[in-house]
Specification:
Layout (H helix, E strand, L loop, with lengths): L7 E16 L2 E13 L2 E5 L6 H8 L7 E6 L2 E7 L2 E2 L5 H9 L1 E4 L11 H12 L4 H14 L15 H13 L5 E5 L7 H16 L3 E5 L3 H7 L2 E6 L2 E6 L1 H6 L4 H10 L1
Length: 262
């Protein structure tokens, strides 16, 4: 890692207020409020269709919220009322804030026609105008961190699913994000490949990276998360430490969900 990452509970990295998201008549998020502090790992769990992935996509503007406010390091990134923008942030500043949010998807989303190292360097070169030699060296360091430096000149198709997802994590880190978003990063993997990706994420957590992770890996959430959020039907039903939410859930909805997957 190139950043000196330290936990600082007094520094709020992400804050959302009253987030709502509609797709036509379908209300997916129905008023979500939470914040994440520097170096904190927050795992979001819940049944399919609860709005977890939509929430992540709204954070980095892949989806626009219908209503509510999103702050990155207490700077207003997006405010909407009745599906209309209120804040009108400068386009360049919005892009800079989005670059602070690294995103890892379920299905890797690597460019198949580019070598692994080029998958890492294309965004920094294109978006941040990074020097090619400098970012290539950094890319090799990141690949080394995820145990894949020797595969730098391979094409993604020649990698296993677990290896592709580790490349996707390195690619996100190449943009020097302050916050990492993970959308069920192991859901598309064969069971025997899940561990290698989770281990990479644990290393990031140990280094102090601020992380918001949508996951169905309850054991991982119990081990790594500082806080766990349980979502259902577009709202946060329960939030607290892993011991509070996973081991001693209070709500019947949380209890029912956990009883079916553990």
């Amino acid at each position: 890692m190139t950043q000196n990452l330290k936990k600082d509970p007094s520094q709020v990295m992400v804050r959302v207020k009253g987030i709502k998201k509609n797709f036509g008549d379908l209300e997916v998020l129905k008023g979500v409020d939470f914040q994440v502090t520097k170096g904190e790992v927050v795992c979001i769990i819940g049944p399919s269709g609860s709005g977890k992935s939509t929430l992540l996509r709204c954070l980095n503007q892949l989806e626009r919220i219908t209503e509510g406010e999103i702050y990155i390091e207490e700077e207003l990134m997006d405010k909407r009322v009745d599906d209309k923008t209120v804040n009108h942030i400068d386009a360049k500043r919005l892009q800079a804030l989005r670059c602070d949010l690294g995103m890892v998807f379920q299905n890797f989303n690597l460019f198949p026609h580019l070598k692994v190292i080029d998958n890492l360097t294309i965004a920094p070169i294109t978006v941040k105008k990074a020097d090619k030699d400098t970012i290539t060296q950094k890319g090799l360091e990141l690949l080394d961190m995820v145990g894949l430096k020797d595969r730098a000149d391979e094409y993604p198709v020649r990698l296993s699913g677990g290896q592709q997802q580790r490349v996707a994590i390195a690619r996100a880190l190449a943009m020097d994000p302050k916050i990492m978003l993970f959308d069920e990063p192991t859901s598309a993997l064969d069971p025997e490949l899940v561990g290698e990706v989770l281990n990479t994420m644990k290393e990031l957590a140990d280094e102090g990276m601020t992380m918001i992770i949508v996951t169905h890996e309850i054991g991982f959430a119990r081990e790594v998360a500082d806080r766990v959020i349980f979502m259902a039907d577009g709202v946060i039903c329960e939030m607290g430490t892993p011991e509070q939410v996973i081991d001693n859930p209070q709500g019947e909805r949380t209890k029912s969900f956990l009883s079916k997957i553990e």
